[in-house]
Amino acid sequence: MRVKFTELTLDTFRMLQSLEWEPTGSYQIAVKELTENGTMSDQSGPSGLIDIHLSTEISDGNLPSNPQRAIIYHPTVSHLIAVLATICEELSQDSILLIYISASGLADQNAYQKYASSSTSRSRPASAFLIDKPNSHASSDDHVWLGPRGNGGPNNLYPEDLIPFTRYPLFLVIDSENSHAFKAIHDAEKGEPAALLLSPRIASAMPGVESMGNGGQFTYFLTAPMQAFCQLAGITSDIDSDTYANAENILFSALEQYEEILSTSVGLNIVWGQILPDPFLRRLILRFIFCRAVFFYFHAEEHGEHLPSCLPSLPESVSPNAKAIKTPILLLAENLVVSNRFHFGNRT
């Protein structure tokens, strides 16, 4: 599917990349040229010469096709719903609809412009301590704001707006300080039980550090967990290649271990069981488990405002308290010499 866009946020770019197969390096080049009678002739000869006027298709023969995707930048709510309805009409019976939304919880444009940066669809103060949301409308936390409309009217997306799409298998990822509002979808589905990954209400950072202009922290962990971990731990200097390679190996092994634990858990909800066979969605779930545990040990005391949540609940075997989940994170922190920035000893 070809997508045209005029602006792409950092969050959307990261998520888009995470939903593509990594190239293997084995490329096939099919070059075709129009003949005089309008038919196509194959010009893929051994010479390797490709005329600039030829139609060229480059594909990696070792990979399956990427999933169909649609990107919408600051849509109106009605436009978003119309696009989702069109996509649902084209879904096959064995497909899962993934909806990823990165949006502000701020209800007015002036407040949004005060806190937003040019590199992300929304931004919010990040602190290791509980702080007030940057929103003067304290009671308006039951929606996310999709951006300004041309006529200046409201453009708020409510959980109820997405419930009709639960007639299909739905995997919903929300990165917003108001993500918790979408818990209302759980047990209100119209057909298929939905799977939800929801960001923390408050981002985390080293005391006195604000992660402004770097995109959504939750999205960062779901799409580039190694880099997100380094950012959270406040690693600002260059890491030598051997140390970084070892850290990547620790993370890779951890995610493999998490996958084995999750797939063999007796109490695994059938909703997650139906999603795990999909490689892209499985990767998001495993990175969520890692993200949640990292945030858990980053704070000295547990506070739900700092932790991402999921519905239905994942098994206790992959909870942050589980030894198999904690140990790789401790090894990763020790390898990067940042274990003193976490609270492994006093969290149970």
Automatic annotation (TrEMBL):
GO annotation (BP), single: DNA-templated transcription
Upper lineage: Eukaryota, Viridiplantae, Streptophyta, Embryophyta, Tracheophyta
Organism this protein belongs to: Triticum turgidum subsp. durum
Entries under Pfam families matching the protein: SCAI
Name of protein: Uncharacterized protein
InterPro entries to which the protein is assigned, alphabetical: SCAI
Domain of life: Eukaryota
GO terms of molecular function: transcription corepressor activity
